[in-house]
Amino acid sequence: MLKHNLGYPRIGNKRELKKACESYWTNNIDLNTLIKVGEKIRKENWILQKSSGLDLIQCNDFSFYDHVLDMSLLLGVIPDSYLEISIIKNHFDLYFSMARGFQKNEWDIKAMEMTKWFNTNYHYIVPEFKKDQKFYIYSNKIFNELEELKFLLKDIEKVKPILIGPITYLFLGKEKDKFFNRIDLIDNILPTYIEIINKLKNRGIYWIQLDEPILSLDLSEKYKSIFQYAYNKLSEKCSGISILLATYFDGISENISVLKNIKIKAIHIDLVEDINQLDIVIDFVIKSDITLSLGIVDGKNIWKNDYYKSIKIIEKTIKSIGEDNVMLAPSCSLLHVPIDVENEINIHTDIKNRIAFAKQKINELNDLEKIVKGNKKILSENYFLMKKIKNKSSSYNEKIKEISDKKENLKRKNVFKYRQEKQKIKFNLPIFPTTTIGSFPQTKEIRSIRNKFRNKKISKKNYIKKIQEFIVNVINIQEDIGLDVLVHGEFERTDMVEYFSDKLNGIVPTDNGWVQSYGSRCVRPPIIYGDVSRKGDMTIEWMTFAKSKTNKFIKGMLTGPVTILQWSFVRNDQPVHETAFQIAWAIREEVLSLENSGIRIIQIDEPALREGLPLKKKNWKKYFNWSIKAFHISSSGVKDDTQIHTHMCYSQFNDILKYIADLDADVITIETYRSGMDLLKAFSEFSYPNEIGPGVYDIHSPRIPTVKEIFELIKKATLLIPIKNIWINPDCGLKTRNWDEVLKSLKNMTKAAKLARKNTYN
Question: What is the mean pLDDT of the chain?
């Protein structure tokens, strides 16, 4: 059995890539230094995987920002506006300008659109296609990395380059011209794929991995037909190289027919997400005489593999198709998990013994092979560990289940139209009320204060005093700018989920469990290991202090149950919806405490609602039944004149607007800037009934939006949404930006809102 990996974390063991990229962007290091950091991380990743016993070592899974953007550069899919920037002198600056925007001298180019990678919290840069799109090899990154790995391994047969497959790549993009479908570009793009694959073959490559997670979706007949057409072409024009077609994130049973008669060497399937596909796929590979790669180690969660269950699957497959036709791998790329559990110092031993990060997951593949070859000791040790874990796992809290089944608790007392009238009277806000999403810049000073407090280098009294100083400062800044609804800035919070994990029973934060979210942005998902409940007040102290420092309304800031669930590593010993309900009741208690403390505008963020959506529509109803119920548990206990906000960002909402409306939040804020308000059209066509704050500037770019462009976006919004329902706000929180950018952007935003008020009849 060949053991291989579909991708490895690229941020570095100590987030070296993040630090290097951000230093390069601020001109603190030169390009050569940045390149050297990338080389070092790649080399460390390759050596680790080689020493862990992998038979094939992948390359081209490393990226300085985003692997989809890498693919766009490889294929020459670069919007003209970026190519025209004459002062950009190298591929790296072009690459980063596409991801982050470019604003210098006379040049002012917006960043490309960004959205979620299938049902994960990883964000990718959306490719943009023209009707006459030309494809050609622009970047040599994959070939350069190949040479690095060849030199390191001294064995070309062990090298496995990875590419996003052509169908998935086209699917991930968007059309910039009207009246054409991007999938119709297949004949334009295939010659370049063929050229790339043959160039790899000519360099001695035997294996190549083509990622086609699109096979896990509900494919139209057109996509199925074009998939077959494309891979028949690739098979015909790329003979002599073994194509491993990789699928993940769900099963492919419904789409297995598209692989009929396609000449590939192997197919990879995700058995963690869908074990029921195994029999169908085994039957297919027997008839097709191809190798089956078993995605058997969880690439998205951090719990140790149950070897007994895995061995049963492996042995069944070997019995059906023979050991030589079986490969072992994680279910998907390990990009979605932290690097090494040994970096965790403060997690309790009982929990630490239950988890495996990327390094440990590679070792698990090696263990499984050894068990197949007769090492019963490893199997026995794992069996008793799994038994011990099961005995230690908390049972589901029946009291919470009993409460959550009471349907009278799960809806607001009155419909939105009635609540809106009450809220208009209570708050008396102008048209186009301005606010922010919640967080303000997290400076080095703020991070230092938190670290000192966490490491007991300053007293709690001094810590509270410093955070209060930051809050007073940000209140004054917001008042000076002229914002209508203020926030406290979230200076006490490292992360919108991690902060709450420290305030809840059954959840533990990590020390170094960093995972890439996008670009240089890394998050530390906490670990949900047991029953969740509220320890006590989580935000009241900071919110009431902020409220005492202003005559304006302060917005309470909470993270919703689905987002806490999705952005954590969730226990796998009970149904996920039961964990969601536990979190929801804890959030509900905090919402009511905020209301009782005089905070009457409360935001319950749910940016992960779309992310958690199953890939297949047949599973949507079940998901929305429990996810919407969880939001209602959190939000429905308040009075009519308490205004509930929620926030969602960087996702495709067109097909789930009904369910977003069912949340019944009084105000929803969403990301719309990078798409030029295109997303708002869907809300308009749906006739979204409640209030909405379309993001009028992109916080993931250092670029400063002008008053004019924000004003034009507001005007565009008024053509789509009733004026009385429109709020004005940035796309997302401001914690990752610097103060200079934030102040200039928010001042322009409030000026544009005031200009819109003057030019609009109420």
Answer: 93
What's the length of the chain?
A: 762
Rounded to 10 degrees, what is the CA torsion of 721, 726, 732, 734? 150
Q: Per-residue pLDDT averaged across 313-331, rounded?
A: 97
Q: Match 């929620």 to its residue by tokens.
A: 646
- Residue 404 confidence class, pLDDT cut points 50, 70, 90: low
- Three-state DSSP class for 384? helix
Let me know if 264 is exposed, middle or buried by CB neighbors in 10 A (0-12, 13-18, 19+): middle
* Domain map (residue ranges) of the chain: 2-123+140-392, 415-758
What six digits make up the tokens of 264?
Answer: 């590939």
Query: In this structure, how many other beta carbons lie within 10 angstroms of the beta carbon of residue 376?
Result: 10
Q: Can you spell out the DSSP letters for 542-572?
A: HHHHHHTT-SSEEEEEEE-HHHHHHTSEE-S
Cβ atoms of residues 16 and 33 within 8 Å: no
Q: Which two tokens stand for residue 308?
A: 């007994």
Q: Are 317 and 256 in contact (CB under 8 A)?
A: no
CA dist 603 and 147 (Å) reads: 51
* CA 176/CA 129 separation, integer angstroms: 6
pLDDT at position 400 over 60: no
- pLDDT tens-digit profile of 211-262? 999 999 999 999 999 999 999 999 999 999 999 999 999 999 999 999 988 8
**CATH class as words, domain 2-123+140-392:** alpha beta
CA dihedral 408, 412, 414, 419 (to 10 degrees): 170
Reported as a pLDDT band with limits 50, 70 and 90, residue 762 is very low
Asked if residue 332 lies in contact with residue 300, where contact means CB atoms within 8 angstroms, the answer is: yes
Per-residue pLDDT, 394: 47
Q: Hey, which residues does 556 pair with through a beta bridge? A: 602
β-bridge partners, 330:
297
Which whole-number Å values give the CA distances from 552 to 189, 469, 487, 557, 660, in the listed order? Answer: 55, 18, 10, 16, 29
- Indicate the class that CATH gives domain 415-758: alpha beta
Return the residue matching tokens 């992310």.
Answer: 611
- Please state the three-class secondary structure of 339-376 as a single string: CCHHHCCCCCHHHHCCECCHHHHHHHHHHHHHHHCCCH
> Taking a C-beta distance cutoff of 8 angstroms, is the pair 651, 115 a contact?
yes
Contact 562, 605 (CB under 8 A): no
User: Can 67 be counted among the known catalytic residues?
Assistant: no
* CATH topology identical between 2-123+140-392 and 415-758: yes
Token readout for 569 is 């590593």
Q: Rounded distance, CA 120 to CA 214, Å? A: 14
What type of residue sits at position 482? G
Cα separation of 338 and 513, whole Å? 5
What is the Cα–Cα distance from 166 to 184, expressed in whole angstroms?
A: 12
**Kind plus residue range of the DSSP H or E element containing 710:** helix 707-718
Active-site residue (options: 268, 336, 577, 700):
700
Q: For 655-666, b where at least 16 C-beta lie within 10 A, e where not — what string? A: ebeebbbebbbb
pLDDT at 314 over 50: yes
606-610 mean pLDDT: 90
